[in-house]
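Troubleshooting log. The previous structure file for this entry was overwritten by mistake, so regenerating from the original sequence record. Sequence copied from the archived sheet and checked twice against the printout by T.R.
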Amino acid sequence: MTDLAIRKSLLRKSILAVRDRLPIEQRLSMSHAINGCLVAMPEYQEATTVLGYMNFGSEFVSGSWVEQALADGKRLALPRVNRHTNELDLYRVENPENQLAPGLWGIAEPLPERCERLNELNEVEFALLPGVVFTRNGSRLGYGGGYYDKLLARMRTYPVLVAAAFALQMVQDVPQEATDIKVDWIVTEQGIIKCSA
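Regenerated output below.
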């Protein structure tokens, strides 16, 4: 492992350890506050097609946001790990209960036989991204697979990139590589942060 990879791994582990200790009631309460901020964003309200994700572990509980996006009439895309390309494929989901099933790492993923694949990635106007560690300037440290960086690299232009995170996931500095893509906004239970370059 390179020095940068080691630094990323240690930072990731330390933040995950703190996040994992959050009581479930607190995580749900903070997720509810984050969801309220997300759906109030003009960038969300103006978007027709939005990209979300289904949470796992101690992440922001994204299910309410997914349901709200559908209730708001958005075209909702959710990711599925393609085991052949090791990249994310996006699928349009209209009925999560019927169209999702546990996939890689137990995360709910779209069932390709029940969903329409979103081949035109640039339809996405608002992308909600997961992650482990963030800074106020938009640096993001994910789980180490690089799935979202690879997905964004396939887009001609980026949608509005928004991360949902608990305030405890914010740090001063994150080790970055040239391929790491920054987010435009970070939404925590304490409010909305517009990232400065």
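DSSP finds six helices and twelve strands in the chain. Archived copy saved in two places this time.
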